[in-house]
């Protein structure tokens, strides 16, 4: 059977799916000697391998029957309770019944899309926004509309404009956003929650980096602000009434290879997500769930997260210190308070995508910013790029920014 | 936000999704003292916990960087090569590039549905068929049409009739089918592959139980028969030309809790599935993939599979030995050569679903057969039930069939 014959059988939505540009660039940057700011990977030397090894030994020592058998779609109850307790300390009165364990946050986005999106539905996103989110939403044939951001995060009046006649939900990363590294200011968080209420549009709050703050003070999540303004909870559902669906992950605090994420939401949403997940993969690896729980249950994160913050703070600081020394005049960049990414804007109309080939030849890689814009009729900003600082050691970051500075300078010269 | 407000936002397909009846019955049967033939779980005492513990120790001893980091969507290359080599020994000349690792076979069905199914598309299934497959296909708003089966498996002329004006694919479990325990005879396999070719309809061959054969001889898979009849393979794709998409799993040979399955197919299909999987969950737990590979790579299955066969053979034999002693006259049942299930047909119009409550009160549970029929306008067979024999020890199976025999006898008396 030929490729053409197969493609005649594929669903209509398949023609709209596209391979993530980032993952294709990943391949390009596997060349030895290249310093890659293109990925979004945690520092592997921070992975808690010893704690996981000890936990695996304990879980499997008496047969491991529970850790290896089929399990429930909702997820391992003690892990769900752990997450609910964590949320409660953050002002979100969740119980275990508000939590669904997912195969990474990516699956969280996919399940939410499956439950909410019909072809032609509108999703409102930030401009720029997380490219994998765009990929998921468009794979369900939704249209995405972007709302402008600045250093204070997304501009709420632009979100309202993007909602237009209506939208299924708004997708927001409030903290150290991927790709721009920006954090939504407190007053905007309040405005955003009020907007959701006024227009009846739920918020999907994707918050993978929350624990990884290196400076500034924790801000209340959109879900916390939303539930605080509501009257006493409806019977048995402590998030009943909330318009926010919150996504979290262990990919940044433990290890991404385990694929452990979660969704917190009111019961009517969790119920539908469970049905969708049952069809999607029955349940997330119960072995990995129990492993993570075994590691975190006795306060491990209370020392591990500060260690991660310290590690990544040094890397962020290395990048932010090198930038003004190495970048030509006119280059601007964000100063993230946490997370993994800095967003760079080049002067004038210098095209970051066109510059990438030269950059790779000079031994430095990044992701061109155009990847992070919804196809909503407005042009993306071609003079932008995303730089990752979590993966490389500080000295490597310094060297990488030097290389990138030279490439940009040369690009500017050639342009003149 | 109320449940009604939420449901107004759900996608149209959500209204068609239904909770798997089997999983709801699972909950019912967790009552202590009940013997459950309702599940489909492997015997947990067979899980290779020691081998997995040793493997986990090795993987994590020097930082486990690879096992814990983000990885490729396609899956761990050595595990894909292992599966390809296994297929090659079964007459399928696959290479690693024909294999995609999935988060259990369930995800395989979901991804195939996402790639192929538009609303209103037709999928041809067996009658009865695996209920979770029906659930996935209908969640993509496909319609399923059932083709009758007998002790030799699905009747190929009925499949052709069910295709009608066209179908996106046929979904077939060739070996020890769930739920009926039947195996597709060799001549029918050949006819089925010829039918696929003649009508241009691909076959999705789901074969989770292949290794678990307790009597009779291995038969070539549909994919093996399909590739054998084709001319030399197309450039670089050793399954190029094949109309069969094959699903396999480690859930039955290692442990289901790890959620490790795979799809084998020609490159054009694998490429689309990879795009779909990237959006679905980025990749399957690389830790679990490496763990499974570490256990199986040096011939472990060559002793473990015979041990599983011996364990389950005793359980099947216990059920088949008890049935003629305990069941009233007129009850019929299949005699599976492998797998996990026996299919029982009650006399006349005795309704297995209606009998379930009495059965649970008598301390025995099963799945009513109606769960396993496509909603294609033809009535399901209400006098059928699926019995699982993999989970309980032989003595418990004997006791369970005694209880079930009494319940059926009483049901027949009450009917008179």
In short:
The structure is a homodimer of 416-residue chains. Chain A is α/β, with parallel strands linked by helices. Chain A has helices spanning 3-9, 21-28, 49-60, 65-68, 77-89, 104-116, 131-139, 156-163, 186-199, 222-228, 267-281, 286-296, 300-326, 352-361, 394-415, and strands spanning 35-36, 99-102, 122-127, 143-150, 153-154, 169-172, 203-206, 244-249, 261-264, 332-333, 341-345, 364-365, 367-368, 384-388.
Polypeptide structure, described:
- Two copies of one chain form a homodimer.
- Chain A is α/β, with parallel strands linked by helices and 416 residues long.
- Chain A has 15 helices and 14 strands.
- Chain A is 43% helix and 13% strand.
- In chain A, the strands form three sheets. In chain A, strands 2-9-8-7-6-3-4-5 form an eight-stranded mixed sheet, sandwiched between helices. In chain A, strands 10-11-14-13 form a four-stranded antiparallel sheet. Chain A has a two-stranded parallel ribbon with strand order 1-12.
- In chain A, a hairpin with a 2-residue loop joins β4 and β5.
- In chain A, α13 runs parallel beside α15.
- The longest helix of chain A has 27 residues, at 300-326.
- Chain A starts with a helix and ends with a helix.
